[in-house]
């Protein structure tokens, strides 16, 4: 079957990584899967022309609003994967909520990463409850074995011995919903007390106006560095070498970076929001903070308590292996895409 896969493909953001992985699953099942950025199309008619030109038989969209609205009324069967901001933010805007409800009525299936995402969708659109499935993200990490950590530190202008260094890594697209500046002032105060702690923010420049604000702030803030986006294998290598991964988002569906850190045996400190608390159990698989001051307290505790660090690493790794199987994710999408091959009555 020839499939269109619509997603927001800003490089190395969570949705882009998920889209690439799901496409691999579908192609491994023998389908031809054309992955396109939803922002390349302005209207359903543009999508309709593309579908006809490419002789496409079905589609999948990652993000109920950004991708799903473009597939409406095009006459081909499609499925939806919830992204995160569709259920956490767009759902609160009346016009977008209405559009998403209509998209969901037409979709053959919808995938939520967590039970809480499924419950949110079911509360909003109860008639769709029988077509919503839960499939957590499958994780597979591939750090670049040739990556040089010391060179990375030099390029980041961190002139400290790697032996006594604690790098806290924040991976996110530079946009307001990821709130990369949330911890910057508190972290910088800590750095000035303890010069061997650094925060490194890595990610693509998604929102140009906000990116300028982030760059200006980081430039004048001791102990914080901003690095451009990197190839996935290099990013995994950086993650493997850092002391801890940080997530300070206002909203998350399911953070792939958190799960990848757990897989790479790196402790996680995450802002206490529903998407994060669904995967991070406080003091078990990671640490949850509610404000910048609590983040610093917990980070200090992690630095000074090797037993806690060891426990969190072991539990995180076990959690990912148990609940975020790449093979199970592949099987689920293979089964769901079969519903696009049949007529609705089958």
UniProtKB/TrEMBL annotation:
Transmembrane segments: none annotated. InterPro entries: Glyco_trans_1, Glycosyltransferase_G1. Residues 159-318 form the Glycosyl transferase family domain. Keywords: Glycosyltransferase, Secreted, Signal, Transferase. It is found in: Secreted. It comes from the Eukaryota. The keyword Mitochondrion does not apply. Its main location: secreted. One of its GO terms (molecular function) is glycosyltransferase activity. Pfam families: Glycos_transf_1. The keyword Signal applies. One of its GO terms (cellular component) is extracellular region. Belongs to the glycosyltransferase group 1 family. Glycosyltransferase 4 subfamily. This is Glycosyltransferase 1 domain-containing protein 1.
């Amino acid at each position: 079957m020839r499939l269109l896969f619509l997603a927001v493909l800003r490089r190395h953001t969570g949705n882009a990584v998920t889209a690439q992985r799901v496409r691999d699953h579908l192609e491994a099942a023998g389908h031809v899967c054309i992955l396109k950025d939803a922002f390349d199309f302005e209207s359903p008619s543009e999508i309709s022309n593309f579908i006809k030109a490419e002789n496409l038989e079905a589609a999948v969209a990652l993000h109920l609003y950004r991708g799903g609205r473009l597939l409406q009324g095009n006459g081909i069967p499609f499925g939806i994967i919830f992204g995160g901001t569709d259920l956490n933010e767009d759902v609160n805007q009346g016009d977008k909520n209405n559009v998403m409800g209509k998209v969901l009525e037409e979709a053959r299936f919808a995938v939520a990463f967590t039970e809480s995402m499924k419950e949110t969708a079911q509360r909003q659109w109860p008639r769709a409850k029988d077509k919503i499935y839960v499939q957590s993200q499958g994780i597979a990490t591939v750090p670049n074995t040739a990556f040089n950590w010391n060179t990375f530190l030099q390029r980041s202008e961190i002139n400290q011995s790697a032996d006594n260094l604690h790098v806290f890594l924040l991976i996110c697209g530079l946009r307001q919903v990821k709130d990369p500046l949330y911890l910057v002032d508190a972290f910088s105060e800590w750095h000035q007390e303890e010069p061997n702690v650094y925060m490194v923010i890595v990610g693509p420049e998604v929102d140009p106006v906000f990116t300028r604000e982030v760059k200006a702030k980081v430039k004048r803030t001791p102990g914080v560095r901003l690095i451009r986006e990197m190839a996935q294998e290099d990013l995994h290598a950086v993650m493997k070498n850092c002391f801890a991964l940080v997530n300070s988002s206002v909203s998350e569906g399911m953070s792939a970076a958190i799960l990848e850190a757990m897989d790479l045996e790196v402790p996680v400190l995450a802002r206490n929001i529903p998407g994060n608390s669904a995967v991070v159990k406080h003091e078990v698989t990671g640490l949850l903070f509610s404000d910048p001051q609590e983040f610093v307290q917990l980070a200090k505790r992690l630095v000074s308590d090797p037993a806690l660090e060891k426990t969190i690493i072991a539990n995180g790794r076990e959690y990912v292996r148990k609940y975020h199987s790449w093979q199970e994710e592949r099987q689920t999408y293979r089964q769901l895409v079969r519903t696009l091959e049949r007529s609705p009555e089958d």
